[in-house]
Amino acid sequence: MDIRHLKYFVRIVEAGSISRASLSLHVAQPALSKQVNQLEDELGVKLLARSVRGVVPTEAGLAVFQHAQAVLKQIEATPSIASQAGGGVAGPVAIGLPWTIASMLGLSLFREVVESLPAVRLEITEGPSAAISQMLSQGKLDVAVVFSSALHAALRVKPLVSESLLLVGAAGSLPGGKLRTLEQAARLPLLLMSRPNGIREELERIWLEMAITPNVVADVNAPRLLVEGVQAGLGYGILPSCVFDRTLSSWQVDVAELTADTPRRTVCLATSMLFPISVATQRVHDLLEGLMYRVVTEGRWDAQVLGSLTPGQSRGLTSSPALRQTFSPKAAP
């Protein structure tokens, strides 16, 4: 089997069109079609369903597409494997981080990889958990932090941390940081993340069960803008506790806990079961796991560790009382 058959087939499926794949590969359409026909003849199955709108993989085509991605990824990793065999951990590692996790851990992870794994080339993608989970399942990422609300069946998942959701308002709008219920929060003018978003969808499910219509004044698909809107007094937000890492946060906002019946968010570390894990990926995975535990035990993240800790980590799991205070640059230690 010619490796070009697999490469071209994968690109066609990703592009959803032979013409678009032709442009990106700089290969004539007739030649691409011939390559696919040869692959179908060799395998004895129909791989693509063609229409005026493009192409989609058949059931057999989808299976071949996923396998071909794994094969091509292994071929691309061959130089890194050779380097590792020569005594050093090396090669690219593509990691996905949701924006809330990236703001808290991204720079620290970058620094640790540069210092302890200098031959590893880290590629960081930031985005919504659902999109990151999808990219991981497709082999476009090697390891990712994902939330339990956005998991794919093809992922190997390790739940690490459970964090609370917090009600956030402009400075002075939530005096004392006292407990609020979701019913009380629903009456406030709310700025919520646009769908698809795991927190948004879970909150709306609960409010629907309570027969409550929340007072949503804006759907915001830009996390930083959402917090800036809250800070400016345009509304209230419901955000995960990891947003308020005291060593990174410069937001001038009030934060209040929500009552115990409010759902918590489970943060997981995941890899794909469909693609092999390189030595470099495993090392970055371990670094990220240790880093997540460390920010919890240092009190920077108001969360609870799930399961056992990695070697060398302590189990000091206490909520940070600082999260009940107003955040401002002056308040940061």
What structural keywords apply?
333 residues; 3 domains; 3-stranded antiparallel β-sheet; 41% helix; 6-stranded mixed β-sheet; Arc Repressor Mutant, subunit A; single chain; D-Maltodextrin-Binding Protein, domain 2; globular; alpha/beta; disordered C terminus; 13 strands; 11 helices
Structure description:
- The protein is α/β, with parallel strands linked by helices and 333 residues long.
- The protein has helices spanning 3-15, 18-25, 29-43, 59-76, 78-85, 99-116, 129-137, 182-187, 198-209, 223-231, 279-297; strands spanning 48-51, 54-57, 91-97, 120-126, 143-147, 155-163, 165-170, 190-193, 216-220, 237-240, 253-257, 265-272, 303-305.
- Strands 4-3-5-12-6-13 form a 6-stranded mixed β-sheet, sandwiched between helices. The chain has a 3-stranded antiparallel β-sheet with strand order 10-7-11, covered by helices on one side. Strands 1-2 form a two-stranded antiparallel sheet.
- A hairpin with a 2-residue loop joins strand 1 (48-51) and strand 2.
- The longest helix has 19 residues, at 279-297.
- The radius of gyration is 23 Å and the shape is globular.
